[in-house]
Design brief:
The protein is mainly alpha-helical. It folds into two domains: 3-59; 90-119, no CATH class. The chain is built from four helices and two strands; from the N terminus they run αααββα.
């Protein structure tokens, strides 16, 4: 077990959180660092390091789907990967008349009914 590697990954994840919080805050880097007590030079150091790491990850050639999924992501398999169809209904009210529509409703019939109700 390489403790230096684990420590480095932990610090990297902490700084990713810090940088995301700064971006979400809308503050300038100087204002954010001053408000949180973070050294501005340390912020820029870690920002460069994160960008470099991200660029190197994006530059890697695409690998097969059997490789390890990156941290923070979940690999979908089997039934999870295929979205399930949700049976939902739509209720349309035109001139006081209600029409219930679902996936089995014939589109031509629906069009005729809507045109008829509109003319009332």
């Amino acid at each position: 077990m390489n403790t230096q590697k684990i420590t480095g990954e932990y610090r990297l994840s902490q700084w990713i959180d810090i940088i995301q919080k700064r971006q979400e805050s809308g503050q300038t880097i100087n204002d954010f660092c001053q408000a949180t007590g973070i050294n501005r030079n340390a912020y820029y150091y870690w920002l460069r390091k994160i960008r470099k790491e991200t660029y190197s990850e994006l530059s890697k050639p695409k690998t097969s789907s059997t490789d390890v999924v990156p941290n923070g992501w979940m690999q979908l398999t089997g039934a999870m990967a295929i979205p399930q169809q949700i049976n939902s209904t739509l209720v349309i009210e035109i001139s006081g008349c209600n029409i219930t529509v679902n996936a089995d409703t014939d589109p031509d019939l629906l069009k005729k009914v809507c045109l008829t109700l509109r003319s009332l």
